[in-house]
Specification:
The complex is a heterotetramer, with 2 copies of chain A and 2 copies of chain B. Chain A is of the alpha+beta class. Chain A has 4 helices and 8 strands, in the order βαββαβββαββα. The chains are: A alpha+beta, B alpha+beta.
């Protein structure tokens, strides 16, 4: 488990390669990368706030849960905070497993939990308006699917 | 006890954290004390279904006990990822 | 859609970065990478045979199907053939979408179909034995799940 | 007509491809003609449930018609990925 909360950008390619190089005997590697979308065509930047202290603890707990549920070789979570522009990468997760199903499911699980259970809040800032991104019911529903 | 506010809760109350002297037994009691202070607190806590709480950096409930707690944080539903 | 069938190795990091750089307005990128496993601890190499002519056509049809089913920005499939050693990367897929669910599901779909419907055959070669990898019932079952 | 063999079908028959003169109406008829040739063909096609067929590079069935087909390929279930 490699958990990083940082303001600095990360390099998807470099992180994916480095993650892959750390795995042995794994047949499958999945990565997910989340990117800032400019939904209305007016976004100047996004401001991501987090709860220092709790954030890494929460991400670690989610990753530990994933390792308990699936047969994983390794996992990586990188999540940025601070100011991000359109098309900037916000975060990524990576998982490895002997089997593709485990690697996929664990990555989806990490994303679903990270989305609604890790203390990050996004604010969208346009030239003449700003607003906090609202949580979506479907993200909460996604968690229920894992609890069945 | 340290009380922390994030996102629009922080903006509405106007500060990110403060020390609070309280003997509140539960999170709900603490919320009641804060609401009684000033209009901005009352407004921030007017709809608890729109809020989440963490006690000592663990997600918790509004009826959770506060005995021994050092840090309580209030914030809207999280929007990471 | 970017489909490549090749004998040469590929660089996961470089491909992931290049794929990401080609997307605009996408909120989610998923990659899957398949790696040679040495199950018995005796594998010398794996030999992957394919059907030149049909292979790219089949992969393209699978990718087109994925684009028809999900809201995708782009997709990438790279599959190697020839001789591969333990821990060598065999193949990768990448998908992008505005939504994480679409990117994940399309990548899983590509993998499930590619596994049982693209004309590749794997032979495992050890010092004193060799054998063709048998298709698994669960891979065929995975396809049925997408047809429901 | 070009007939192609892959993986253990290729190994069992002993060649990757050959030209076949045939008036077989279906894939199944072609298989019957091939099996009648020699023991190695008969052995390779002894269990059709372990085989797949592509007609002109499209996955097909053993009862598919061959009219106009230029290329037929036989192989075991695929194991890509």
């Amino acid at each position: 488990m490699d958990i990083r909360v940082q303001e600095a950008p990360f390099d998807l390619g470099r992180e994916a390669s480095a993650f892959a190089a750390r795995q042995t005997g794994m047949g499958a590697i999945v990565t997910f990368t989340g990117i800032v979308r400019d939904l209305g065509g007016t976004l100047d930047h996004m401001q991501i706030e987090h709860y220092p202290g709790m954030t890494e603890k929460a991400l670690r707990a989610i990753a530990e849960d994933a390792h308990a549920r699936w047969d994983l070789g390794g996992s990586l979570v990188i999540h940025r905070h601070g100011r991000l522009g359109p098309d900037d990468m916000i975060m990524m997760v990576a998982t490895s497993s002997r089997h593709r199903k485990d690697a996929f499911e664990a990555a989806m699980f990490l994303m679903d939990y990270l989305k609604s259970r890790a203390p990050f809040w996004k604010k969208e800032v346009a030239a003449d308006a700003e607003g906090w991104v609202a949580a979506r019911d479907e993200d909460e529903d996604a968690l229920r699917d894992w609890q069945r | 006890m340290d009380v922390l506010y994030f996102a629009w809760v922080r903006e509405r109350i106007g500060l990110p954290r403060e020390k609070v002297e309280t003997s509140a037994a539960t999170v709900g009691d603490l919320v009641a004390e804060l609401r009684a202070r000033e209009a901005r607190y009352d407004a921030a806590f007017s709809d608890l279904t729109a809020l989440r709480v963490a006690v000592d950096q663990e997600l918790s409930d509004f009826d959770a006990p506060l005995s021994g707690a050092r840090e309580v944080a209030f914030f809207p539903p999280m929007t990471g990822g």
